[in-house]
Design a protein that fits this description.
This protein is an alpha/beta fold. 39% of the residues lie in helices and 18% in strands. The chain starts with 23 loop residues before the first strand and ends with a helix.
Length: 303
Amino acid sequence: MKIFITAKYYLLFFLSLPSVFAQQQGNIATEDGNIYYEIYGEGKPLLIINGGPGFSSKGFASLAQELSKTNQVILYDQRATGNSTLKEVNSKTITLQNMVEDIEVLRCHLQFDSWVILGHSFGGMLAYAYAAKYPETISAMIQSSSGGCDLSLLANTNFTRHLSEKVRDSFSYYNQKVSNGDLSYNTRYKRAYFMSHAYLYDTSKIETVAKRLLEVNSEINSLVWQNMRAINFDVSDEMKNFQKPVLIIHGKNDLVSMSIPTKAHEILPHAELVFLDQCKHYGWIDRKEAYYSAIHTFLNKLD
């Protein structure tokens, strides 16, 4: 699966806003590479797991900065993305289980007994996988526009349905040009530009999103989805027994069907579900005040 070609499986990116700076950066040496991380603020630890797969975490720096007002926030680059490296990139090294273990390596390195984990988009799926393997390390979980705890998303998500006819036609035109071998920056940017309309209700940020979409590592993306299909990813049963508080926050206009957070809400014993009006895939952009209010209210209740 190539992320820009197969619309059915194309999902879950992030938005880069004006740069903010972490208070601390670090690298963890592993047997097959390194894990890069950044830390913002002070307080109870909160890990942000970014969407993708195939992107670095830098587009989530503004989210980390906001949440660092109340918590110590950790960002990290998933394996073979951003500043995290691997000696070999293949189907054996790029697996969901290895990505789960990277998170646990990070927790142990930072010597946290437990932490809140926030997974956005694909990052929500990775958060569910981590929660299934290491539930005792999690004090609470936030699922933001999550892809869900199984692969229902792949059958229910087609971003072109969320484009107007005019935008869809423009996307199809540039997508076909790329498929025919035109890999010029202008053509790829135009395709990403029209694709970006599926992700934001507030179209004023479209150009920024389009530029970020061009940074995806399509090899990593393909390998991750290949592995998740091979293992038939589904941690629904484990989540039925997950006893920690969970906030599920989702845009009513998100390309990820509302049936996915609804199902998670029904499965998880202690989950709160918040739907945001006039909001697509990026709650902190489309409904900034409501999005952050829901998260801060949830975090405050944990104290």
